[in-house]
Amino acid sequence: MKSTPSSNKTSSKPGSKDSTAIRIGLDAKQRGKSAEILKAILANQHVLYLKTRNFHWNLVGPRFHSLHLFLEEQYQRLAKAIDETAERVRMLGEVSPGSMQEFLDEASLKECSGEAIHGLDAISVLRADHESVIRELRESIDKLSDLGDAGTEDFVTGLIQDHEQIAWMLRSHEA
Ligand SMILES: [Fe+2]
């Protein structure tokens, strides 16, 4: 069996700088590029999370109660995805953005101010946002594949599946 380069060494002393080096088969440049992709995803997740919560609060119309609960389920799913995305940035050795300003600067989605919104209008806005996110995530997956970052590629594939399910549920309400 061929032995591989020094990246397989595990002999660094505890506490030494080398002992905290990240040896996961991706160099710092690859990890940095993957993290940038995740940070852009994280920004849109925050906008979509807050928009969903805003509509959960400000919904009006005859199906208020069921839509109110329906949107609560969705923002809870988004909150979980947000946490996993930010922690994945950390796993790659980068620092996660943590302020609303950073998220707004990076996001491609636009936020909505708080005002009363009819159920069907809220559904239609959210469906369009989830679909837009899905299209962007597909591009991210292509880039991650080129970077050879299989773990993040798989993670983002899972995110797409979640958004696809939510978009389907929203679309079904519009029918
Ligand atoms: Fe609530």
TrEMBL record:
Stated family: Belongs to the Dps family.
Residues annotated as domain Ferritin/DPS: 36-173
Top-level taxon: Bacteria
One matching Pfam family: Ferritin
Comp. bias (Low complexity): 1-14
PANTHER family membership: DNA PROTECTION DURING STARVATION PROTEIN, GENERAL STRESS PROTEIN 20U
UniProt organism field: Haloferula sargassicola
The protein's name: DNA protection during starvation protein
Disordered: annotated span: 1-24
